[in-house]
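Thought: the user wants the 3D structure for the chain below. I'll pass the sequence to the structure tool as-is, report back what it returns, then summarize two notable features.
Action: structure_tool
Action Input:
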Amino acid sequence: MASIFTRKRSPYYWIKTRDVLGNWRNSSTGIRIDEPGGRRRALAKAHTESAAEPDLRAGRTGQALSAWVPQFLKNRYEARQPKAYQRYTDAWAALAIFLDEKRIATASQVTRHLAKQYPYWRVEKHQGLKKVKWNTALFEIKLLGLVMQEALERNQITGNPCFKLGFKREATKETHAITVEHQALIERKLKELNAPEWMHVSWAIAIRQGCRIGATSVPMERIDLKSKPPVITFFSKGKFNTAPLHPELLPMMRRFKKEKRAVTCTLPKCPGRVWQNWLWRKLKLTQYSFHCTRRTVVTRLSADNWQQPMVKDYVGHASTTVNDVYRRLKPRDLVSLSASLTGAKPEIKGAP
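Observation:
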């Protein structure tokens, strides 16, 4: 039962209430002790809180979200998708702060109205949380929807309050293919500014193989130098992709094998962000991110008339449709197409 009390050096009445987990919480009523009729109003507020307590405890389940969600995420993602697991864990930490602030403990207390509040709350600055952009907030609310779906399957709720909330993502900044001149500049600055080795290695692999940054940390056992041709196997987004090893990477890989390394390089936390800060702040190349290396490889191979199914397999895209999104050809790359209009056949290459 809720009750009121006073605190030393506080001019307000305080109220003690019990949450759905049986834990006591203290909060200020905002009613001053010296205010006429203040005690009566504080007691009335305590009575209202007491009346709400049985309703909270009488939810469909007394199991708090905090009691099962972390383990649910661990079981589902840690082994198969460790990077996704880290992202979801960070997202849940932000969601947990929001739910705690709203005094939400169980899935049955999450409403559609509450879910719609979250993105607007998340893009503002809060103690203990770094301010994020709209699309990141939508990613996190998507996780809440996943959690609510699991609660639905556990018979904790009768419907998913996060189903089709109607939010739209903001248009993201378009990535560009890296020019040859800027590639040379980046590689020169890597040496001049004494960048850490993992940056040298990740760049060398990505700009030649077109893989994602997380995939540049390759276990050496997945690099077969005895194969003809030598091959490298990447693991990204839950699947493996084997591609021919670029000849310019052979000396580096031979050295790594001789050194008996376990992986090509050990990436820090959020390597893409580290690279972005480096490109933007030190080189002033704000039009690029590390992921532009992937677009660069696809665009350069397409400009040289390699067939799209072959390019797709080289970089590990799921389909040629995804491959098409990554292509950014310039007019000079398409000049050979005019040959078709004069009856001549342009050269088409079959494999990289």
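Final Answer: Structure generated. The beta strands are 3-6, 12-18, 24-32, 223-224, 231-236, 239-244. Residues 3-57 form one domain.
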